[in-house]
# Entry
Amino acid sequence: MNKNDKVFGLKSLKVKYNGRYVGTLAMLNNGMVAFSYEENWLENGFSISPFSLPLEKKVFVPTKNFFGGLFGIFADSLPDAWGRLLLDRLLTEKKLDKNINILDRLAMVGKSGMGALEYEPDYEVTDINTISDLDYIAGECTKILKTKYSKDLDSIFKMAGSSGGARPKILTTIDDENWIIKFASQFDSDNIGIQEYNYSLCAKRCGIEMTKTHLFKSNVCDGYFGTVRFDKKNGSDNVHVATVAALLEADFLAPCVDYNDLFKLTRILTEENKNDIENMFRRMCFNVFAHNLDDHVKNFSYMYDEKNNKWKLSPAYDLTFSNTYWGEHTTSVDGNGKNPGVKELLSVGIKAGLKKDKCEYIIDEIKINVREDLGKYIVNA
Ligand SMILES: Nc1ncnc2c1ncn2[C@@H]1O[C@H](COP(=O)(O)OP(=O)(O)O)[C@@H](O)[C@H]1O
Ligand SMILES: [Mg+2]
# Structure
């Protein structure tokens, strides 16, 4: 990337879905970014965010400003802390202005974002070759976090620049499957990889739907956690995904929802899909018993199935032991974020329309599985 081939300070951007033109984003004078659907999409497309952007001929203007002036669904395409840090480092290294606007940042995501939305123009930041030695990548990520320096910053950015979440990670293809592989952050212990892997095995045993997970071998730690991506499949269209943050225009840095809200959302969006409602119940119980306090609104997503015109809960991800600095679940359970237990879980489940005895059975099952499989992680929590 050099200064000459891109025009920064973009005022508008095209949004596409698997190559089809969805609509246009336009920067307003007050810094908010308006969106309107394109004519053809209005006839043949679908609403990309049903509550804030219904399929209507209209100029939509966001009212919340915590997504940098964007609607949440477009903010979902932007990287979170890790990818943003890499981009900012790269811009500094290349002596480019870091004060680029939010549309410039989306243009840098271009076609490489999570989910199915793409942006035009596509400002590819770097096309440097990627690296395959995971121990080497993990070491360079630590260097970037600690010393701000890596001679392979371009490659690391190429592999991770559009990823979400705060932990270092890469997006990579292995034997035709698309994986996310995660590395330790400066706050994690060395066994974070095997821990998340063990959490994923237990979650699956608890009936929680997840994609394939794997512990990638390392010579310097117990391994790196990887999960197959549900938004990309080689040879077929990318899947449109929306986080709860996007769907509810909710700030993921703040504790702003309760599990009662997540059930309400699931019931409305999936049109009472029984599997999804039960799976959400299992996730809530798992997060409570396995001490996953970081259950914020970007750690739950829904996927759109265009063929059947239906939304569904996505497979689960980011299920691991976690704390918050205020010591409570980010998503409260029937109003209790500090020490929710059976009473609150039951109350939420029953309000969501699940039968009391079914809830009791699931609560017991998950409590026992978690104690057996993950007891060593939560003993001092
Ligand atoms: N299996 C997956 N398929 C598709 N997207 C995923 C998958 N796992 C995670 N993600 C996306 O990547 C983001 C970062 O992953 P996550 O495990 O939450 O990392 P972190 O520990 O850094 O928060 C998530 O917020 C989600 O949007
Ligand atoms: Mg996360």
